[in-house]
User: Fold this.
Amino acid sequence: MLKAIGCLLIIVGCTFVGFMYGEKFNKRVIQLNELDKSIIQLKNEIVYIYTTLPNAFLNVSKKCMYPIGDLYIDARNLLVDNKVDSVYEAFELSIKKNEDKLYLNDNDIKILSDLTKNLGESDIEGQISIFELTLKNLEKQIKTAESLRNKNLKMYRYLGFTVGAVIVIILI
Assistant:
């Protein structure tokens, strides 16, 4: 009886680990979509409403889900408190502060960094071009992330169960 319970716990534990690892792919897609929406909102705030950057960041952060909203609110606070010299620095510090909550990879962060390097540095037409380029690059990343999710989510779930079953077979 004790042996059966131990085997069941091993299988359940390994399956749980497989589900948790596979869920990272799903969370990345969710966060990329949220980042895409937030950049569209930021574009509207800056280009059409002419909101200042700190206020635009505050407005966007209120409309975003966790942890993307935290990126904007942390960057805003750094800018308002004059702790940084540029928007790029504010976002870099904000990303470092929130990196344990983010499931974005280096390419995703690079797209956001490229946007913040040029944010507020040109006229309206230049800002529109920068936003459009960023959104186009982000769409490519979303498509890549979705294909990775579709390919790997089930694999890691089944792999967790399979590893648990193999361990149980070896132990018996």
